[in-house]
Amino acid sequence: MVRARFVFPVVLLSIVAATGLAVQWWREQHQVYRLVIATGGAQGEYYAFGQALATVVAQHHPDIAINVLETEGSQQNIELLQQGQAQLAIIQSDTPPQPSARALAFLFPEVFHLIARSDANIRSFGDLRGKRVALMPEGSGSYKLFWALSQHYYLTAADFTALPMSPDAAYAALRQGEVDALSRVMALGNPALAELLRTSQSQLVPIDQVEALRLSLPYLEATQIPKGTYDGAVPIPAEDLPVVSVRAVLISHAELDPKLTRAITQTLFEFRNELVVLHPRTATIRLPEAGENLGLPLHPGAKAYYEQDRPVFWVEYAEPIGLLFSVGVLAASGLWQLRLWLDGRQKNRADRYNLEIVALMEQIQTANDLTELETIRYQLFEILRQVVVDLDKDRISPESFQSFTFPWETAITTLRHREMLLMNARSQPPVSPDLSSN
């Protein structure tokens, strides 16, 4: 009787414990992690990338829901991360780090653009003295980099009129002659900037002295705005234009669950082609090289992904590997020739696509019918689909894909412009003949 009295509570406690463990397991299996990623303005590259990342992560990791937050830029993003209001953020590589920030990956390059009115007599950064300059909002990476560059040219706030404002307001001010120049850091080929350069009396200004700038700003990279990036017909710019750039970096809070950061990092590289379809510039994302400094410590989850293929068995099988290496040396020259052949084949394939784009651009210029333009639009997107497939199957290289995106986006922009011209012409009433003289 006494034994039965003790058995019942034990059985009851066991059932309760088993039920609790089952409930906990079920919750873990069905839990949805809701994250916030701080990006930038709604018309900018950071926001567009954040939306693409959220979409692809949700497709492959349904337990992760990412909310894309519009912000004023890098400085605000890292502050939101520090305050715990965001778990992910995109910042420029020149943004001062915070103790709570950890790096996940380098994203696409961000190029410093200086645009000046053609009648403002601004041919270099130093010519901004005495001018009115529209800057991006305070706290943005563009704002910070402008002032860092101005120090190199010995320009202070007293030497010109700095007017921080939103990108849309800055573009409008330049069109209306209310400012002489504007500066903004963004990925190449931005459609809004292309429209500004084509429809206003303005021009891009080169930024040279990159190696001298790197003495005090080591995060800067030398790059170029390729000829025709913003208009292939004119072209804009007329020649390859030397400028400087920084890298966009995807970061997270140090305390974010490593399994989440690993899943997000995995998405960047294993599902990159899906990201490219939504945001073509993600084609430039690359795995960090061994020992590469991203400007911040790596998050443990991202580090685990990068090191997942580290070959531990090399030590255990040192002798057979040595034999294989000896055999490999004998075949090295043949493999090298094969690689050269494959590289050449990839380049030839990419060149063929670019020639198709050029041919379609010529058709766009002469098209006089909206139906014809719609056919050309279908052909352009079919070419893009083929290129993405070829990138996925390593038929073309990421570098070739990056060079392809410029003429493709130029063709799409030219097609839209041609459509507008045809629609405007169609909407004009016919001119009646003047019969008053009869």
UniProtKB/TrEMBL annotation:
<protein>
    <submittedName>
        <fullName>TAXI family TRAP transporter solute-binding subunit</fullName>
    </submittedName>
</protein>
<dbReference type="InterPro" id="IPR011852">
    <property type="entry name" value="TRAP_TAXI"/>
</dbReference>
<dbReference type="Pfam" id="PF16868">
    <property type="entry name" value="NMT1_3"/>
</dbReference>
